[in-house]
Write a structure and sequence with these properties.
By secondary structure, this protein is mainly alpha-helical. The protein contains two helices and two strands; from the N terminus they run E-E-H-H.
Length: 71
């Protein structure tokens, strides 16, 4: 039987927690990549593309934080 992590609100199996933590890392990596691309676009004079990428960076960060708070 798998270990469970029990908190007042939920219980997660160890495997589920591992998968969620893995996804947190993917969301953080995506946010960082979008931020890097946005910065390059802004520096290179592509303001509209930069704004688009900044929004996507924020969105990925919000996904990460939702998962982080859930875990």
């Amino acid at each position: 039987m798998e270990k469970q992590i029990v908190t007042p609100k939920r219980s997660l199996t160890t495997e589920t927690e591992k998968l969620l933590n893995n996804q947190v890392g993917k969301e953080a990596s995506s946010s960082s990549a979008y931020l890097s691309m946005a910065s390059w676009c802004e520096k290179s004079g592509f303001a509209n593309a930069a704004e688009f990428l900044y929004r996507h960076s924020d969105e990925e960060r919000m996904h990460m934080l939702k998962l982080f708070r859930y875990i």
